[in-house]
């Protein structure tokens, strides 16, 4: 399971949360922009170091001390695709695999390529593909190693609704089959409700309510949370 106690001072407030998620489970972290959601993911991923706390994924201690990025058994899809523009789509997708692992994972990579509609651009340089295509490539690269933990930070920004529906369906299918822990962050409930049945609502770095979406909608803990749910 993922067990994370994170304390991180930001401008104006301190993020102070405890998150526990069992193997194969999904959790949405929901709140307004600037509430500290991305800070939580950044600390789990290792892009930031907490000021205090402890983060464990199963038997692997991620913090403290901070475990190096390449040794963390997780994948992190940020708001930016961060592809290597000079490499082909195929090389981008296989970039995180160890030497020789591309051949060993050929069937899995072929499934990613087909399910995400990447066949026509598989040998194209990443610099030559569209924004929507880049997002699909980034998703394929994230899943290529079949990580036990997947972190999503507003993963569908600026994408059209049909593509969002298709990517959510693909993630849902693979999460159920592979059983990875999924933590998704967004300020849009309409996205998160499709990805995760359980949610932790956050305001100014603190979890103010946790449970299923129905419990939040029926009895939101604060006026701010009620307003955020109403505008979805």
Question: What is the secondary structure topology, with strand pairs?
Answer:
Layout: E1 2-10, E2 13-21, E3 26-30, H1 37-45, E4 52-57, E5 60-63, E6 75-77, H2 89-93, H3 101-104, H4 106-115, H5 131-143, E7 149-153, H6 161-178, E8 181-186, H7 189-195, E9 198-203, E10 206-212, H8 213-218, H9 223-230
Parallel strand pairs: 3-8, 3-9, 6-7, 7-8
Antiparallel strand pairs: 1-2, 1-4, 4-5, 9-10
Overview of the structural elements:
- This protein is α/β, with parallel strands linked by helices and 232 residues long.
- The protein folds into 2 domains: 1-74 and 148-232, Rossmann fold; 76-146, no CATH class.
- The protein is 34% helix and 26% strand.
- It is globular.
- The chain starts with a strand and ends with a helix.
- The relative contact order is 0.19.
- The mean pLDDT is 92.
């Amino acid at each position: 399971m993922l067990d994370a106690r994170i304390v991180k001072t930001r401008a104006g407030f301190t993020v102070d949360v405890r998150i526990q998620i069992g193997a194969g489970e999904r959790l949405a972290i929901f709140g307004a922009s600037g509430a500290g959601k991305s800070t939580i993911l950044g600390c789990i991923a290792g892009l930031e170091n907490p000021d205090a706390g402890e983060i464990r994924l199963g038997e692997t201690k991620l913090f403290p001390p901070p475990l190096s990025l390449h040794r963390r058994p997780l994948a992190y899809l940020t708001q930016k695709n961060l592809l290597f523009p000079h490499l082909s789509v195929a090389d981008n997708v296989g970039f995180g695999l160890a030497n020789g692992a591309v051949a060993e994972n050929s069937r899995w990579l072929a499934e990613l390529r087909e399910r995400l509609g990447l066949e026509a651009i598989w040998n194209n340089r990443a610099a030559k593909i569209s924004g929507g295509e880049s997002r699909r490539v980034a998703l394929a690269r994230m899943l290529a190693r079949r990580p036990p933990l997947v972190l999503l930070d507003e993963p569908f920004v600026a994408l059209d609704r049909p593509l969002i529906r298709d990517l959510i369906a693909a993630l849902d299918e693979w999460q159920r089959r592979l059983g990875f822990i999924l933590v998704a962050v967004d300020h849009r409930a309409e996205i998160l409700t499709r990805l995760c049945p359980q949610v932790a609502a956050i305001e100014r770095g603190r979890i103010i309510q946790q449970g299923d979406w129905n419990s939040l909608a029926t009895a939101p803990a604060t006026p701010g949370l009620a307003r955020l749910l109403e505008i979805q």
